C-alpha cells in the first residue's frame, strides 16, 4: 500500500514541523521552567536570595536550560515522544495519564457532533440540490446561514438552561448517553453549514454531469441516481475538507465541554489555564495538533481508497 | 440558479453597517454611561427606561452593548487588516519567488490552516495569562495562513491565465501584470475569505471571553459582558442574550457578505475560496 | 410510409420568454435512420432532450401531439410522468462523449445489470455477458469487473452504445456520437446504427459529421433557429467547412535575401519528466516574409512559440530577432519587434478592461507616445480591424470573432516587425474564419512586416503563407514554398497533412 506508506511519511514530517512550532511557542512564553517551579512550589520563600540563585542555576542545569536551543528541542522532543509530558502542578499526576482518562469522553462528543453535522448536512444538501434556486433551496440556505451565525456559547448556554428547565436535563455529572445528546447537537449545528454547502455544490455538479444524464436516459429513477451513481463521487471531495470540519469541531468543543461540564480534554485544559498549570496546557496543544495532523492525513489516504481515480491518476503521473 | 448573490451581499453589508453605525453613534443613542453603576435597579429586565435591562451592578445593558461594540469591532477590524495584508503579501511573494521556497511553504501553509484557531489562542492565553490582547495574538498566529495559501494559489493561476501570458508576450512588466492581471483575480476571493475569517475571529474571541480567557471585566466589551452574564445565566439570561445577539448579528452579516460574494464570483467564473 | 413509431407535432420548448424549439413536427418511422443537421446553437441538444423527456428544469415543453406507439399500445408523452416507463426501455440515448457518459465509479457489469433490471430484463450473470458480447467485447467477464473510468475511449463507446441498444428500444437517439472516434470506430458505429434500424427501431442521428450522415441517412432534416427544414446533405452543410478560397495571394517578397527577421538555430527544450519537446529547430523568416508552421498537436508548436517570444527559456540553441540575441538586446526591447496574436482570443484578453485599453496596452507598457496619442492610435487600430465605436466594450460584450480582431489590433499597436499568430482561427466558427484570415493577410501586407503563422490546418497556412515548415516531434521535417508543398512534400507527416486537407473547392481564388 504505497498510498498508506506515503500518508504515514508525510504525517511524520508534518508532526515534526508542528512540534517545532509548539516548542517555539512554549519557549517564547514568559518565565522558563525554573521560574515556574520556584514560583509554584513556594521554595523561594525558604531560601536567601543568594541560595536561591545557586539553586536556580543548579535546577536550570538539571533541566538542560543552559544548552543550545536545538539541543533543548531534541531533549524536549525525546521526552514528548516517550509521552513524558511532565506532571500536573495541581494533582501531581503525570499529565499524559490525566489527559488519557479524558480522551474517550472528548472523542465520544466529537464523534457524535460530527455524526449530527453529517446527517443534517446530507439531508439539507440532498433536499436543496434537487431544485437549485427553488423555494426549498432558499429556505434551507437561510437556515444554514443562521446556523453559521449563532455563536456556540449562546446556543450552548441557553440550550442547557432551557433543556434543564423544561426536560430536566442533568446539568452536571459523569459522561453518559443521557448527557451526550445536547452538546452533540450544539456541536453539530456549528459544523453543519460548511459541510452542507460543500455537499450541495458537489451534488449539483454531479447531477449535471453527462454520466448522470445518461443514467437517467436509461430509465434510472431519481432516488437510484442519487444513491447508486452520484453519491460516491459527491462525497469524495468532502473528505479533504473534513480537516476544516475537524478544526471547527475542536473549536466548538472547547466551549461546549466547558458549558456542559463534559469531562473531556478541552474542559480539563480550560480549568488548567485558570490554575496556571503549564504542563497541561502544553500537552493539550500537542495532543490537538497531533490529532489534527493525523486526521487530515487519514482523510487524504481515505480519499485515495474511496475514489480509485485519484490513485489511478497518481500512478499515471 | 441562486440569484446573483447581490441581494445577499447587500443584506450582509447592511447588517454589518448597522452594527458599526450603532457602535460609532453609541453616545448619541444611549444617554447612560456604560461604566456608571447603579443607574438603575440591579438585574432588571428590559423596560422603557433601560431597553435591554441592567446588570448586577445596575449598569445599563443597552449602553454597554453599544459601547462594547466599539472595542470588539475595532479590535476585530485591526486584527483582520493585519492578517489579510500579511497573509496576502506572504502568499504572493511565495508564488512570485516560486521554486524551492514555494515547495517548502505550501505544506507549512496547509499545516497552519488545519490548526484549530481556538486551541492555539487557548494555549497562548494559558501561557501568557488571559487578556483580550493575548487572545487576539493567539488568533493572529495562525489566521494569516489561510490568506497566504489563497493568495499563493491565486497569484500562480492568475499568472498562468492566457490573458496574463499574452500581456507578458506583448511586453507588460511586473507591475502591469500585478495591477491588471493579478489584482482583479485576487480581490474578490480575498474579500470572501476576509469576511469568513472575520466571522470566525469574532466568534473565537467572544467564545474565549465567555470562558473568562479573553477580554476581562469590567471593560464594556461583548466578550467580557458575556463572561459576566454567564454567572447569572440562570437568574437573568438577558445578560448573555444581549451581547450574544450582538455577536450573532455581526457574524450573520459577515456570513451573508461572504455567501453573496461567493455567488457573484461563482457566476463570473472566478475562484471561490472555502 | 408506414405508421410512425413516434410522432411529434408542434413541439415547442421555451426558456423564460425565449423559444429554443419553435413548433417542431417530426415523424419517426421504424427501420429508418433520420439525420438531423444543425449548427451549434440551433437547438439540437434541446430537441434530443425533449425527445427523451429530459428538458432541464426552467424549460417549458409543450406539444400538440407527442405519441409513442409500442407493442403494448399508444403512450401519450406530453406529461412528464409518462416518460418514467418509456425512458431507457422504449427510447434510448447514445450520449455524445462516451467516456463522460458512464458513471466513473461503477463497474461496467454493474451498470449493465442495473440497466437491464430497469428495462425489465433478468439481470443475471448470463444476461450481462450477453449484453457485453453483443456490444463487441470478446471477454465480457474481464470487462464487467472493470471500473468505467478505467475503460479506454473505444471501450466506453462500445459499452455506451451497448447499454442503449440492449433493451431494443423503439426509438434510438444518437447525439453527435462520432465526435470522439477515429475512422475504424466510426465505421463500427455506423454499422451498429444501421443494424439497430434494420432490427426495427427508428434511429435519430444528430450530427455535423457529414461523412457518417451520408452513409446512413434515410431522411434528412436541418434544424435552424429552432425550426426543422427538409434538407439534403449536399445543401445541409458545406462539404468542407474550412477556407473556401485562398485569401491572400501574397507575392513572395521581392528581396528574398533581405535581412533575416528571425533566425533560429538548433533550438532545444525539454520539460521535467518529458522527452525533448523541441529537438533542434532551425528556422528563418526573412523581412516581409510570411512563414507557416504546420504540425499535429504535441509536435511542439506552442513550445516553439513560447520560446520565440521569451515566455520560455530554451535549453540550447540560438535565437536571433532582427540580428540580435535576447541576451544582447533584452526581451523588453525585443518585444517591441515581436508581437503575438494568441490562440484563444477570449481567454487572452483581460475581461476587466475595455477594448480601447487592451489595444493601447502594449503602448502603455512600452511607454510609447503621450496618453492622448496612445488612445488615438488605439481608436485608429480598432477602426482598421472593423470595430469602430466599440472601444468601450469589454471582452464579455464582444463576440469571439470581435475578440480576435481586438487581439490583432493589439498586436499591431507597437508596429512590430514580426507578427506571430498562434492558431489564429481555430477558436472561431467556420463562417468567421475567412474574415479574420483576410484581415490578417491585409495588415501583414500593409505594415510590410514578417509573420509566423502556427496552425494544424493546412488550408489556413496555404491561404496566408509564402513558405510552410512542417514540425514533427520537435524538428522541422519539411520546409517548402507554400505553392510547392502539395507536389514536392515527401515527409510522411506532410503527406498525411495533405491527405487530411484535400484541395477541392478550396482552390477557388
UniProtKB/TrEMBL annotation, chain B:
- Membrane-related topology note: Multi-pass membrane protein
Report keywords, A-Z: Cell membrane, Membrane, Transmembrane, Transmembrane helix, Transport
What Gene3D superfamilies does UniProt report for this protein, alphabetically?
Answer: MetI-like
Where does this one sit in the cell?
A: Cell membrane
Q: Which CDD domains match?
A: TM_PBP2 (cd06261)
Q: Where does the record place the ABC transmembrane type-1 domain?
A: 69-258
Give the superkingdom in one word.
Answer: Bacteria
Q: Where are the transmembrane segments?
A: 7-29, 73-101, 108-128, 134-150, 190-211, 231-257
Q: Name one Pfam family in it.
A: BPD_transp_1
UniProt record similarity statement: Belongs to the binding-protein-dependent transport system permease family.
Looking up PANTHER family in the UniProt record yields:
OLIGOPEPTIDE TRANSPORT SYSTEM PERMEASE PROTEIN APPC (PTHR43386), PEPTIDE ABC TRANSPORTER PERMEASE PROTEIN (PTHR43386:SF25)
Q: What is this protein called?
A: Peptide ABC transporter substrate-binding protein
Q: Which organism is it from?
A: Phytohabitans aurantiacus
TrEMBL record, chain C:
Signal sequence range: none
The UniProt entry, under Gene3D superfamilies, shows: P-loop containing nucleotide triphosphate hydrolases
- The entry's keywords: ATP-binding, Nucleotide-binding, Transport
- Cited SUPFAM superfamilies: P-loop containing nucleoside triphosphate hydrolases
Entry annotated with the keyword Nucleotide-binding: yes
Q: Give the top-rank taxon of the lineage listed in the UniProt record for this protein.
A: Bacteria
Picking any one GO molecular function of the record gives:
ATP binding
The segment(s) forming the ABC transporter domain are: 6-250, 262-498
Kindly give the PROSITE patterns that the UniProt entry links to this protein: ABC_TRANSPORTER_1, ABC_TRANSPORTER_2
**Pfam families from the UniProt entry:** ABC_tran
Q: Does the keyword Zinc apply?
A: no
- State the similarity comment: Belongs to the ABC transporter superfamily.
- Name assigned to this protein: ABC transporter ATP-binding protein
Amino acid at each position: 500500500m504505497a498510498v498508506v506508506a506515503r500518508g504515514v511519511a508525510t504525517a511524520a514530517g508534518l508532526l515534526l514541523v508542528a512540534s517545532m512550532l509548539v516548542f517555539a511557542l512554549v519557549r517564547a512564553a514568559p518565565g522558563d521552567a525554573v521560574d515556574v517551579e520556584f514560583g509554584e512550589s513556594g521554595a523561594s520563600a525558604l531560601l536567601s536570595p543568594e541560595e536561591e540563585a545557586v539553586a536556580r542555576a543548579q535546577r536550570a542545569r538539571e533541566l538542560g536550560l543552559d544548552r543550545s536551543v536545538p539541543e533543548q528541542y531534541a531533549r524536549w522532543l525525546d521526552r514528548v515522544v516517550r509521552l513524558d509530558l511532565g506532571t500536573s502542578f495541581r494533582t501531581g499526576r503525570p499529565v499524559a495519564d490525566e489527559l488519557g482518562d479524558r480522551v474517550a469522553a472528548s472523542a465520544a462528543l466529537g464523534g457524535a457532533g460530527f455524526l449530527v453535522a453529517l446527517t443534517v448536512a446530507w439531508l439539507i444538501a440532498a433536499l436543496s440540490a434537487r431544485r437549485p434556486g427553488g423555494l426549498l433551496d432558499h429556505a434551507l440556505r437561510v437556515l444554514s446561514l443562521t446556523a453559521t451565525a449563532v455563536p456556540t456559547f449562546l446556543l450552548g448556554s441557553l440550550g442547557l438552561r432551557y433543556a434543564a428547565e423544561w426536560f430536566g436535563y442533568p446539568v452536571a455529572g459523569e459522561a453518559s448517553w443521557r448527557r451526550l445528546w445536547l452538546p452533540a447537537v450544539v456541536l453539530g449545528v456549528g459544523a453543519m453549514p460548511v459541510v452542507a454547502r460543500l455537499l450541495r455544490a458537489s451534488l449539483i455538479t454531479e447531477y449535471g454531469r453527462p454520466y448522470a444524464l445518461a443514467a437517467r436516459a436509461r430509465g434510472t429513477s431519481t432516488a437510484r441516481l442519487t444513491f447508486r451513481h452520484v453519491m460516491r463521487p459527491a462525497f469524495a471531495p468532502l473528505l479533504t475538507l473534513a480537516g476544516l470540519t475537524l478544526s471547527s469541531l475542536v473549536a466548538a468543543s472547547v466551549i461546549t465541554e466547558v458549558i456542559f461540564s463534559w469531562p473531556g480534554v478541552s474542559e480539563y485544559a480550560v480549568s488548567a489555564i485558570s490554575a496556571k498549570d503549564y504542563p497541561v496546557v502544553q500537552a493539550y496543544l500537542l495532543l490537538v495538533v497531533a490529532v489534527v495532523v493525523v486526521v487530515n492525513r487519514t482523510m487524504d489516504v481515505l480519499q485515495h481508497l474511496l475514489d480509485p481515480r485519484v490513485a489511478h491518476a497518481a500512478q499515471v503521473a | 440558479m441562486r440569484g446573483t448573490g447581490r441581494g445577499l451581499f447587500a443584506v450582509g453589508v447592511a447588517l454589518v453597517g448597522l452594527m458599526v453605525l450603532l457602535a460609532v453613534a453609541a453616545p448619541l443613542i444611549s444617554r447612560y454611561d456604560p461604566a456608571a453603576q447603579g443607574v438603575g435597579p440591579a438585574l432588571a429586565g428590559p423596560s422603557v427606561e433601560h431597553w435591554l435591562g441592567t446588570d448586577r451592578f445596575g449598569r445599563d445593558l443597552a449602553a454597554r452593548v453599544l459601547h462594547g461594540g466599539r472595542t470588539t469591532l475595532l479590535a476585530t477590524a485591526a486584527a483582520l487588516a493585519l492578517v489579510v495584508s500579511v497573509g496576502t503579501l506572504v502568499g504572493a511573494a511565495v508564488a512570485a519567488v516560486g521554486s524551492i521556497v514555494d515547495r517548502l511553504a505550501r505544506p507549512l501553509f496547509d499545516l497552519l490552516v488545519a490548526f484549530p484557531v481556538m486551541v492555539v489562542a487557548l494555549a497562548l492565553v494559558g501561557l501568557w495569562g488571559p487578556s483580550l490582547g493575548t487572545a487576539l495574538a493567539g488568533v493572529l498566529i495562525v489566521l494569516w495562513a489561510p490568506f497566504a495559501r489563497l493568495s499563493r494559489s491565486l497569484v500562480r493561476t492568475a499568472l498562468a491565465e492566457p490573458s496574463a501570458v499574452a500581456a507578458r508576450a506583448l511586453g507588460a512588466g511586473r507591475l502591469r501584470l500585478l495591477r491588471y492581471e493579478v489584482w482583479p483575480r485576487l480581490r474578490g476571493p480575498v474579500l470572501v475569505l476576509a469576511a469568513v475569517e472575520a466571522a470566525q475571529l469574532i466568534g473565537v474571541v467572544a467564545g474565549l471571553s465567555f470562558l473568562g480567557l479573553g477580554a476581562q471585566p469590567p471593560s464594556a466589551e461583548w466578550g467580557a459582558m458575556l463572561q459576566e452574564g454567564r454567572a447569572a445565566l440562570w437568574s437573568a439570561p438577558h445578560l448573555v442574550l444581549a451581547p450574544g445577539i450582538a455577536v450573532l448579528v455581526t457574524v450573520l452579516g459577515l456570513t451573508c457578505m461572504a455567501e453573496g460574494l461567493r455567488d457573484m464570483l461563482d457566476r463570473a467564473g472566478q475562484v471561490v475560496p472555502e | 410510409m408506414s405508421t410512425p413509431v413516434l410522432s411529434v407535432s408542434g413541439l415547442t420548448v421555451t426558456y423564460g420568454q425565449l423559444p429554443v424549439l419553435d413548433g417542431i413536427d417530426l415523424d419517426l418511422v421504424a427501420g429508418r435512420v433520420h439525420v438531423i443537421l444543425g449548427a451549434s446553437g440551433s437547438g439540437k441538444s434541446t430537441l434530443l432532450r425533449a425527445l427523451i423527456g429530459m428538458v432541464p428544469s426552467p424549460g417549458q415543453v409543450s406539444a400538440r401531439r407527442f405519441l409513442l406507439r409500442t407493442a403494448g399500445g399508444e403512450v401519450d408523452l406530453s406529461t412528464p410522468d409518462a416518460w418514467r416507463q418509456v425512458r431507457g426501455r422504449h427510447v434510448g440515448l447514445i450520449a455524445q462523449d462516451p467516456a463522460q457518459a458512464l458513471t466513473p465509479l461503477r463497474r461496467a457489469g454493474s451498470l449493465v445489470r442495473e440497466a437491464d433490471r430497469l428495462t425489465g430484463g433478468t439481470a443475471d450473470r448470463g444476461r450481462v455477458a450477453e449484453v457485453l458480447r453483443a456490444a463487441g467485447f470478446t471477454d465480457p467477464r474481464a470487462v464487467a469487473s472493470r471500473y468505467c473510468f478505467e475503460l479506454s475511449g473505444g471501450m466506453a463507446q462500445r459499452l455506451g452504445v451497448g447499454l442503449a441498444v440492449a433493451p431494443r428500444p423503439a426509438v434510438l437517439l444518437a447525439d453527435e456520437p462520432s465526435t470522439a472516434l477515429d475512422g475504424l470506430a466510426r465505421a463500427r458505429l455506423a454499422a451498429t446504427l444501421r443494424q439497430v434500424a434494420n432490427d426495427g427501431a427508428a434511429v435519430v442521428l444528430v450530427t455535423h459529421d457529414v461523412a457518417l450522415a451520408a452513409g446512413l441517412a434515410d431522411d434528412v432534416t436541418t434544424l435552424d433557429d429552432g425550426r426543422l427544414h427538409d434538407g439534403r446533405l449536399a445543401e445541409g452543410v458545406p462539404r468542407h467547412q474550412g477556407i473556401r478560397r485562398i485569401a491572400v495571394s501574397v507575392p513572395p517578397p521581392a528581396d528574398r535575401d533581405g535581412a533575416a527577421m528571425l533566425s533560429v538555430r538548433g533550438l532545444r527544450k525539454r520539460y521535467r519528466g518529458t522527452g525533448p519537446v523541441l529537438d533542434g529547430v532551425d528556422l528563418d523568416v526573412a523581412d516581409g516574409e510570411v512563414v507557416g508552421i504546420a504540425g499535429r498537436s504535441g509536435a511542439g508548436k506552442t513550445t516553439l512559440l513560447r520560446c520565440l517570444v521569451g515566455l520560455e527559456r530554451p535549453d540550447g540553441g540560438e535565437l536571433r530577432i532582427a540580428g540580435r540575441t535576447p541576451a544582447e538586446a533584452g526581451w523588453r526591447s525585443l518585444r517591441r519587434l515581436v508581437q503575438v496574436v494568441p490562440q484563444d482570443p477570449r481567454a487572452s484578453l483581460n475581461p476587466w478592461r475595455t477594448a480601447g485599453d487592451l489595444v493601447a496596452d502594449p503602448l502603455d507598457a512600452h511607454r510609447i507616445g503621450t496618453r492622448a496619442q496612445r488612445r488615438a492610435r488605439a481608436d485608429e487600430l480598432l477602426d482598421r480591424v472593423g470595430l469602430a465605436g466599440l472601444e468601450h466594450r469589454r471582452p464579455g460584450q464582444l463576440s469571439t470573432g470581435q475578440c480576435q480582431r481586438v487581439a490583432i489590433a493589439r498586436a499591431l499597436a507597437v508596429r512590430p516587425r514580426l507578427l506571430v499568430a498562434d492558431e489564429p482561427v481555430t477558436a472561431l466558427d467556420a463562417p468567421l474564419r475567412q474574415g479574420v484570415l483576410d484581415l490578417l493577410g491585409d495588415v501583414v501586407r500593409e505594415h510590410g512586416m514578417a509573420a509566423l503563422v502556427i496552425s494544424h490546418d493546412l488550408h489556413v497556412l496555404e491561404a496566408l503563407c509564402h513558405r510552410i515548415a512542417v514540425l514533427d516531434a520537435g524538428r522541422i521535417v519539411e520546409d517548402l514554398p507554400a505553392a510547392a508543398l502539395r507536389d514536392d512534400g515527401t515527409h510522411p507527416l506532410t503527406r498525411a497533412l495533405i491527405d487530411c486537407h484535400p484541395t477541392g473547392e478550396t482552390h477557388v481564388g
